[in-house]
Amino acid sequence: MSEDKPHGMPQFGASGRKIVYDENGKPCRTCNTLLDFRSITNNATSKAAAGAAVVTATASVLATNVPSDCPPDVEELGRSTWTLLHSIAATYPEKPTDAQKDNLKTFMKSFSNLYPCFYCADDFREYMNKEKIQVTNRDEFGKWLCNAHNAVNVKIGKPVFDCQLWKERWKDGWKDGRCD
Amino acid sequence: MSEDKPHGMPQFGASGRKIVYDENGKPCRTCNTLLDFRSITNNATSKAAAGAAVVTATASVLATNVPSDCPPDVEELGRSTWTLLHSIAATYPEKPTDAQKDNLKTFMKSFSNLYPCFYCADDFREYMNKEKIQVTNRDEFGKWLCNAHNAVNVKIGKPVFDCQLWKERWKDGWKDGRCD
Question: Which of A48, A60, A167, B114 could pair with A171 as two cysteines, CB 3.0-4.6 Å apart?
Fold first, then answer.
């Protein structure tokens, strides 16, 4: 994988974000949003998008009508992965054995080495080096993971989540009963 | 976690499937479908669902209008997890180093120990004991994983996928261009 732009290929997508290319010089699906991926792979639309005035209109056309049996873009991959990770926190024991603690640490470390979006994986490894993973019990890990998720939210301009509420969001559902 | 039915709680959900309860005797969110979870937690509807004739109507009401910020049920968790795993296959190297092979094996083993739906995790560990994981290269792992997914599809009555096509589905998109 590489972030270098191959010769003759655009540097930015319809969203204005830099396009990430794979080792063969193709735009990487799991590293770009579908909108940006499409703005590069769909030539006709890509040409239209070169005029800044039409970028917004183009964006709304490009981002719709995605069949559900297509490879995920970076956003779907992110949503799916946080769903798995927070659910792992939700079912992690309140009093884990040493073996369970070791297994969770091993899982998170190996995960950070093979997450499909390579620059996201780089960022996550950096976070793990800076903020030591907490595996003492369910709540400690749940909050550590919630903080890790928030660090990504800040980076991509999404709202920060109140980590006191992680169990309502990922384990028990909200107290107003809307998840029941 | 336990599959034992606590005293006074129903054994089957609105779908007719057995309800899985957690260690506190509550229905487990990540082990049941949302439909079944709701048929147990929503008392009024649960009583209505006791009459077999209204189960279908009840089912369609129960399964709709789920806020996106609720804990995932067993189906959403499954979809999310396969999305991550197949994407890992799609970006796994064509010529991995020994360290990359070891990391993938470690990841899959630790994953099988902590997957949030405990009876799904039991089945997956059993599959891994029977069908040795293939990590030689991208295509070998992608096909092994596709076969593992198909074993689950068979178990839950879903269609089997043609594993020759795993890269179209999870890496490159379909040749008819509908993913581009």
Answer: A167
**Contact residues, B window 94-133, toward A, CB-based 8 Å cutoff:** 100, 103-104, 106-107, 110-111, 113-116, 118
What are the backbone angles phi and psi of residue B21, rounded to the nearest 5°? Answer: -105, 150
Would you call B79 and A80 a contact, using CB atoms and an 8 Å cutoff? Answer: yes
Give this prediction's pTM: 0.84
Q: By residue range, what is the domain housing residue B65? A: 1-71
Cα A131 to Cα A27: distance, rounded to the nearest angstrom: 32
Read off the pLDDT of residues B51-105 as tens digits, 9 standing for 90 and up. 444 444 455 555 556 788 999 999 999 999 999 999 999 999 999 999 999 999 9
Domain end residue (candidates: B71, B94, B128): B71
**pLDDT of B179 higher than 60:** yes
Neighbours of B116 (CB within 10 A): 28
Residue type, B133: I
Shared domain for B64 and B85, answered yes or no, is no
Share of chain A above pLDDT 90, in %: 60
DSSP B158: P
Task: Let me know if residue B178 belongs to a domain.
Answer: no
The pLDDT of residue B53 is 43
Residues B87 and B159 in one domain: yes
Cβ–Cβ below 8 Å for B69 and A174: yes
* A108 or B39, higher pLDDT: A108
- Partner-chain contact A178 B103, CB within 8 Å: no
Question: Which residues of chain B lie closer than 8 angstroms to A104, CB-CB?
Answer: 110, 114
> CB of A158 within 8 Å of any CB in chain B?
no
Which of A36, A68, A84 is the best substitution to test chain B (most B C-beta atoms within 10 A)? A84
Rounded to whole angstroms, the Cα distance separating B91 from B25 reads: 41
Query: What length is written for chain B?
Result: 180
Mutate to test the interface with B, among A110, A146, A158, A165 (most CBs of B within 10 A): A110
Question: What's the pLDDT at B50?
Answer: 47
How is residue A66 written in tokens? 């995605």
**Record: contact B179-A70, CB cut-off 8 A:** yes
- B178 Cβ neighbours under 8 A, 6+ residues apart: A67, A70
CATH code, A79: 1.20.120.310
Q: For chain A, how many structural domains are there in total?
A: 2
